[in-house]
Amino acid sequence: MIRSMYSGITGLQNHQQKLDVIGNNIANVNTYGFKKGRYTFEDMLSQQVQGASAGTGDGLGGTNPRQIGLGSSTGSITNIHTQGALQPTGRELDLGIAGDGYFRVSNGEEVFYTRAGDFYRDNTGHIVNSNGYYLLGEGDGTTGNPPPAALSIPSNAEGFSIGANGSITVIIEGESNSEQVISLATFANPEGLEKVGGNLYRTTSNSNDATAENAGIIVGAPGTEGLGQIAAGTLEMSNVDLSEEFVEMITAQRGLQANTRIITTSDEVLQELLNLK
């Protein structure tokens, strides 16, 4: 009876956390490059009432273990890094990724990763995101402001375009230059990346192996080494499916209500015991 009450409490807590994840998904349904979260449950340690036994061979068969579960706990909260739909915008610095990979951006001290490709030019011509972080080509992005690998479009450029291979073609005085190339990165385990806000991710000890020779990160030009291609003039939408989230929300709500009923029923039984005298 008391066990059932505590089991109900764990169920309440974990269903509330599931609703928190669902609420965050729905809140970011229109966030560019957002990757939805998924909450899973797992059962807690069970109390052993009687262990299993094998058959004795004298007419009695074996018996199964008798266990009473002690509730549920969080199994995982995972980011699902599936491709979102590419929405055409027609803007030259709106960049989507068709396939695997993340843009590399830097604040001059640390490199972050993002699928949100809404970039702009600052007053010095550097390509930056909405937070002012520099878009990087291949090379160092952790020293200097701007870092050496920061990409830019000169203010005297007569025009520019960005190809599917990430090359930035700039036209100056009638001559084109395509030396700068946007770099993308992939990881051994993209789901191990840590969200840091602002549509950004940073690496963790489980996203890549920092002790390995290549650190578990592949950095290269779009379209090479399994990396996706750049779709200029598009933005990747959130991969949140509202219909799926509403179904998950209903099941989480019903689970929460059922666990509430377990607690109230256990309380009623306790009250009956108190009233026996």
Automatic annotation (TrEMBL):
Q: Which Pfam families match?
A: Flg_bb_rod (PF00460), Flg_bbr_C (PF06429), LlgE_F_G_D1 (PF22692)
Family note: Belongs to the flagella basal body rod proteins family.
Organism superkingdom: Bacteria
Localization (cell): Bacterial flagellum basal body
Q: What does this protein do?
A: A flexible structure which links the flagellar filament to the drive apparatus in the basal body.
Instruction: Give the protein's recorded name.
Output: Flagellar hook protein FlgE
Residue intervals of the Flagellar hook protein FlgE/F/G-like D1 domain:
97-170
InterPro entries referenced in this protein's UniProt entry, alphabetically: Flag_bb_rod_N (IPR001444), Flagellar_basal_body_rod_CS (IPR019776), Flagellar_FlgE/F/G (IPR020013), Flg_bb/hook_C_dom (IPR010930), FlgE/F/G-like (IPR037925), LlgE_F_G-like_D1 (IPR053967)
Provide the Flagellar basal body rod protein N-terminal domain boundaries: 5-35
Domain spans labelled Flagellar basal-body/hook protein C-terminal: 232-276
Protein keywords: Bacterial flagellum, Cell projection, Cilium, Flagellum
